[in-house]
Amino acid sequence: MGDLHFGTGSHIFYRALFKSINKDAELVVMCGDLTTRGLIEEARGIADAVSGLDKPAVAVLGNHDHEANNQEEIMDILEDAGIHMLERGPYVTEDGKVGFAGTKGFCGGFLNCRIAPFGERILKMFINETYRETNRVNRDLKSMKADFKVVAYHYSPVRDTCIGEHSEVIPFLGCSILSDPIDTFKANLVLHGHAHNGIEKGQTPGGVPVRNVALPVHNKKYVIYDTEDFSSSG
Ligand SMILES: [Fe+2]
Ligand SMILES: [Fe+2]
């Protein structure tokens, strides 16, 4: 699931939702924009809502979760509630079968039209943020030992899943740089959010399946994926 945009009034709905996930899933992945305005009380609301979840949960933050500059405290609150924040390190299931690496990611555009670190200092700083986020996933995938590797981002690593969005906004929905470690270390599946008006399915240049789990893309509040359906990838 992605883009919960938890805010005032979300509490009762999400408490019931997380409880209902128990019967459907073995593990929950949350792909950022967990809050609406990055407020501490919104994070506390999520922490309370997940108290009914008895399955492991991993998450990355989204741009909305950075809005009030509370990102470290939000991660502390969510970790205290039992959600493993991938920004702080990878997660591997107890049986060693499935591993998760991830981070928020950042934007910059796709393929030959992506921003290059050239010219003005401010533009280099902008795209260096994307490289910095990508390097975290690179490091975590490199060290990960798991049969099936999942990468979770908020921003999209491919243009495919942004189809349907206005063309002017697409460079701000993700960046091809994010797909480099996925193909280098042959991950099996990539999940992301942020592209609310995009489509579900895409793939990296190396053929790794990408799934956009932003809630508005789906007519349900979470999507179930079975690792068996992706085990030939990567
Ligand atoms: Fe969002
Ligand atoms: Fe977002």
UniProtKB/TrEMBL annotation:
PANTHER family: PHOSPHODIESTERASE YAEI (PTHR31302:SF31), TRANSMEMBRANE PROTEIN WITH METALLOPHOSPHOESTERASE DOMAIN-RELATED (PTHR31302). One of its GO terms (molecular function) is UDP-2,3-diacylglucosamine hydrolase activity. It comes from Methanocella arvoryzae (strain DSM 22066 / NBRC 105507 / MRE50). This is Predicted metallophosphoesterase. One of its GO terms (cellular component) is membrane. It holds the Pfam family Metallophos. Residues 1-197 form the Calcineurin-like phosphoesterase domain. Keywords: Hydrolase, Metal-binding. GO terms for biological process: lipid A biosynthetic process. It comes from the Archaea. SUPFAM superfamilies: Metallo-dependent phosphatases. The keyword Ubl conjugation does not apply.
